[in-house]
From TrEMBL:
Entry annotated with the keyword Mitochondrion: no
Protein name: PRTRC system ParB family protein
Family listed: Belongs to the ParB family.
Bias (Acidic residues): 269-294
GO cellular component: chromosome
Region (Disordered): 261-334
Alphabetized GO MF terms: DNA binding
PANTHER family noted in UniProt: CHROMOSOME-PARTITIONING PROTEIN PARB-RELATED
Composition bias, Polar residues: 325-334
Ranges where the ParB-like N-terminal domain occurs: 1-96
Keywords: Chromosome partition
Any Gene Ontology biological process: chromosome segregation
Amino acid sequence: MTLPLSRIIPGYNPRRYFDRRKHEELVASLRLRGMLQPILVRPNPGHDAADTYLIVAGGRRYRAALEAFGPEGEVPVIIRVMTDQEALEAAIDENDVRDDASETEQADAAVRVLAACQDDRAEAARRLGWSKAKFDRRLALANLSDTVKLALDERRIKVGHAELLAAVPADKQDKALETILGSGLDVSKTRDLLMRVTQDLASACFDKGECMTCPFNSAAQRALFETHIDDGHCTNAACFELKTQTAEMIRFEEQERADKAARVAASLAEDDPGDDADDDGQDDGADESMDDVTETPAAAVDAPQGGQAIASAQSVVPRKADSASKASGPTVTATSIAGRTAELREASWRTALARALAGNAAHAHSTILVAAMTGTLPQIKAETLKARAGLLVDPAFPGLDYGAKIAVIEALQEPHAATILSAIGAAYARDAANFEHVADLARAFDVDLRATWQVDRAFLERYTKDELSFIARECGLIAHMGEKAFAKRLGGKKTDLVTGMLGAIGFDWAGRLPSCMTLEGRYGPPPLQADASPTKIAA
């Protein structure tokens, strides 16, 4: 049948670019011979079926017919009842099989079908009749900015140019396109240009765990495109710089804490004359002191798999006799040591949580929502993020008025927005006033302090000999060295004791968390390796 053009409405059309010359040729052909091939339409689901119809296939003919005949002109149509999904797939298929379908039109179609398939890539590729490789390549091209897509549609750049630009953040693509077009760069020279402005991930000073799946890691592009930057290069300079500065800031804070701990330890050493009673270097009585150390069964030294058992909180001070025990001072327990370690413990857990949130946008998002809903989000220091807005968002961002800033934030690409969320979450971990909130977040996200902290000289030097004995026992060092050997070390200078504890042959401190550093106040043994038994770990 025929319908007036006024009753036909454009539907979904994968086409996004129409060549003006070909359009004019089609208009001339229609005026000369009329429309030879009917337009495929379906009843408009939003109106009476007899009123208007949506185009399924034939959008270019419709546009030309409007110019040739006007809105009251009649054209041949085929009316077919179809669901939205059937119409979408038919429109894509009708355009895809034609030789002049562009890559960007296919990219937009891939996005639409993927959404209709609830993000099931295999099903989307099947419905389109594409291989999985073709689907992934076209979907990657959907990350191109509209300006770059138009340049590719108009063939002002080649597909190789587009593949390279797809690995660059969208807000940087237009500038790169200007350089390519202005300098007439071919694909090879474009690749060389981008290589000079990317960052080699091998030189990064931050944890590159999340970089492995990041779309701005050039290694991820190798599997997609024939034209790509060398493996292991970051094409998102702003994100790379942010992570670098964050890592350097954390390292600086850790160094400050270590220096402070060393100063505190030196002060304690001056106030503890008994620790260096044997400064003459003689070990007289060292062997005898073996009998003075509290005996602890080996089973109580290290926790079994799971790390929840703790060495006994009984005193580990020498006990020659009841009267001597009373004269030796207060009993050393996990609680008493923790009280002297509170500042370091809190700072270390804040750093661990900040790093975890900086690498996980989903957890950072949850943190921000909880903080906002509990009224603690304002605890983030205003200057913490304000001073970094130029790096986090855009160099020009700090100088914009508020309305313009809203527009910039609205236009952020999802990966860029995720990076900013991660930075806000990390800032909250550092600035939250209540440490218990930090602890609860660390528990909820399974943050492991062992990834960012371990026993070192600065940590041990803050304690007295009695406290070092307690730490050595709960961490398994005394069981490893033997009571007599450790007692001999205990009889010497504290500095030598610390050196001996850290340098004990065959003993690895890595992964051992003294009870004073854990959130639960229980000793945490090293994580069990796949090929290790609990007995080996305890040793």
